[in-house]
Each structure stands twice: as structure tokens, then as C-alpha cells.
Amino acid sequence: MTLAGKGAWIAGTDRPEIETIRIGFMPLADCAPLVMASVLGFDELYGVRFELSREQSWTGMRERLLGGQLDAAQALYGMVYGIQNGIGTGQCDMAVLMNLNQNGQNITLSRTWAAAAEAPGGLARLVQEGQRLTLAHTFPTGNHAMFLYYWLAAQGVDPMTDCQVVTVPPGQMAASLAAGHMDGFCAGEPWGQRALRDGAGVQAASSEQVWPNHPGKALGTRAAFAATHPNTCRAMIAALLEAARWLDVSRANREAAAEVLASPAYVNASRETLQYCMAGRVDGAVWRGHNGLRFYADGEANFPWLSDGMWFMTQHRRWGLLRDDPDYLALAQQVNRIDLYREAAERTATPLPDATLRSSTLMDGRVWDGSDPHAYAQGFAPA
Questions:
Q1: pLDDT value at position 7?
Q2: How much is the pLDDT for 296?
Q3: DSSP 3-state assignment of 184?
Q4: Cα 378 to Cα 380: distance, rounded to the nearest angstrom
Q5: 33 preceded by cis ω (within 30°)?
Q6: How far apart are CA 172 and CA 162, in angstroms?
Q7: By CB atoms within 10 Å of each CB, which of 9, 182, 316, 365 scores lowest?
Q8: Residue 234 in contact with residue 340, Cβ under 8 Å?
Q9: Cα–Cα distances in Å, from 8 out to 3, 208, 229, 345?
């Protein structure tokens, strides 16, 4: 079936270069924009069709994206910048087209370690007594690793020397914790909720507590794909902006999305757990899920802020994943395709910010605004 005549870009040079876009996603609550854009037909509204591929691990997704089996992906922000800088893989120029969500991750610990973490300095005291944490994240350069490391360091624990850190696919986190294979993990929902409801773990901190309104997953692709398919990328962004706006309109929409996501084709978790993760509270007129999950927020949650990309590079530098300081701003300007996003935002009447950097205060009181990334990265004392 052809989509000619259905899309918002169908004439002249604006027509998408391809109609079917192969997009990878992970079974997480924050895959909702991709799934609902496909289910509700927002993709066809812009002349494209999303062919969604449920991936099993971030490593597998990375390889399929780099190998061309996927055109784009719901990607870890830090993973995109890890590829860009050749950390743990061959270097490939990448593109961040938009942010898909903010917040919605959590740090879950076993009951023993969670009790220790409740007291100031409790984790550090256990480590000083000779105990050693085994903790899991989902990808070495990814969001969960960086948030987990940041949180541990703020507790006086050095993740590089005081812990054994392992990589586990998100869908296996709760079961691995229940089996005693590790003491805790950082992952996206609903897997923290699964551990809590199974009695295996306790939420020690939400990622929103580490960095309020932090970047979540990004819509990532290879820079070469964005260069040869700019109209397709604009259509993809526009469709996802429509889906994100729909998700933030009402609790009813969030609950309807949770019912869709519960399917084995998507997240394969209970509807009740997903509804809790998706529809937690309202902030003004905007619905925010458990742990502050935001999908649209008048475009604030979607804009590809340069400072967001730069922050992950400062943390890669902090933890020795980058040997030298990159040109933070130049790389962020290269990777984050604000030009494509801006054009799609204008087509969907999505508000745009006045600046490309934003200011945030993280859990340790440090202010991150992207103005001096070198000093920021060098300013962290050892845990």
C-alpha cells in the first residue's frame, strides 16, 4: 500500500525519501511515543510508516543500527555519544533527531542495601567495612550507567573501585535481583516496579531526583541516514511530536497507551504496572507518570538541547571512558540536529525555546548549563 497523498509532506522536495522506516525500540514504558505514533497513525499522517522492531538488548540495537538493519532507534542518549566518540565500538558519525522523553528511570536496591542507603553516608560506611556492591546498568556509556555512577558518587561510593558493575538487559533486571545475582540496578520502568511488586527490591532513588527533567531516550540515527533522508527524518520527528503531545493530554490517554504497551509485542508487562508507571500525577495541565515521566511538556521534553548531549560527554570523561576532553560544543552541534527538529516542530505547532542550552541543578547541588564543560568535567573530586 502506498502512502502517497496521505502525508503532510507529499509535494515537491518535501516528500519523504522513503515511506517505510525501520525503527528499533526496547520494551520500556518510554517507548510509548513510537508505539502510539504507529498505532494511532501519526506516522501515516506525515507520509511514512513506522516498522517497529522490538530489540532485546542495547548492544544488539547498536549493532543493528550501525549495520543498517535499522534506520533509526529509541536510543540511549549516552549510547549515541559513545558511538560518536568510538567508545567500545568503531566510530560512526551519529545524529540525535529529538528527545523522546524526560525522567522515568530508577535506581532499585535489594532491601538490605536500600535500608543502608536511607541513612546519610550509609552506603559509604558499608563499603568502608569491606562490603562490595554488585550493581547493574543497561549499557556502559548509557543513561542508566551515568545516572547510577552520579548517584553513587554523591553517596561517597566510587563505582569504579567500590563496586562490581555489570551490564544486564533491562527486561532481565528484576529477575536477576530476585535471584540474588546482584544488589541493585538502574533501569527504565517498568522493571523497577516489577522488582518492587515481586518483593525483590526497593526504589532507592528516581532518576528525576538525580537530575530533575533529565534527558531520557533519544531518537537516534546514523548521520549518513539523516544526510540522505532529511525529509524522512522531519516526518519521523513530526509524527513523534504528535504522539508525545497526545500522551501528555490526559491520564486517559496514558492509561490507554499502557494497555497497548502491555502486549507481548511491545513491553510484555502487566497493564496495572504500566498504568502506574505511565499515569502517576498531574503537574499543572500536564500528566507526569511515576518518577516524573514526561513525553511532551510543550516541546520542552523533546527539544535536542545541546547541553544534554554535552553532559553525557562530561560524564564519559569523568569516569575515564574518554581519555581527553573532546570539543564538547562542536560535537553537540554536529550530532544534535536542531535544524531538522526545528522544521518539524514548526509543522506541528510545537513551541521552540529561545536558546539551545539549558540550566539544571543536579542532586549534589552542582549547576550544569553547558557554558564550561571542560571545567565541569574536571571539577568532580574522587568519591
A1: 59
A2: 97
A3: strand
A4: 6
A5: no
A6: 24
A7: 365
A8: yes
A9: 11, 36, 16, 13
**Grid cell locating 279:** 499515569
Closest to 261 in 3D by CA, of 50, 17, 28, 60: 28
pLDDT digits (tens, 9 = 90+) for 167-180: 999 999 999 999 99
Where do the H-state alpha helices sit in the chain?
32-39, 42-45, 58-66, 77-84, 111-118, 122-128, 143-154, 173-178, 191-197, 207-210, 223-228, 230-249, 251-261, 271-278, 306-318, 328-335, 338-347, 373-378
Residues 6+ apart with CB under 8 A from 211: 147, 150, 360, 362, 363
Residue 272 pLDDT exceeds 80 = yes
Find the angle CA(159)-CA(164)-CA(166) to the nearest 5 degrees. Answer: 100
Residue whose grid cell is 533501569? 187
1 pLDDT exceeds 60? no
Res. 13: pLDDT tops 70 = yes
Ranges 124-133, 178-187, 251-260, 317-326: which has the least confidence: 124-133
**pLDDT tens, position by position, 131-171:** 899 999 999 999 999 999 999 999 999 999 999 999 999 99
Distance CA 280, CA 283 (A): 10
Q: Count of alpha carbons within 13 Å of 232, Cβ hemisphere only?
A: 20
The whole-number pLDDT of residue 12 equals 56
In the chain, how many H helices and how many E strands?
A: 18, 14
The grid coordinates of residue 141 equal 556509556
Percent of the chain with pLDDT over 90: 88
Q: How far apart are CA 125 and CA 120, in angstroms?
A: 9
Structure-block grid coordinates of residue 169: 538487559
Strand, coil or helix: 173: helix
Contact 148, 186 (CB under 8 A): yes
Q: pTM of the entire structure? A: 0.95
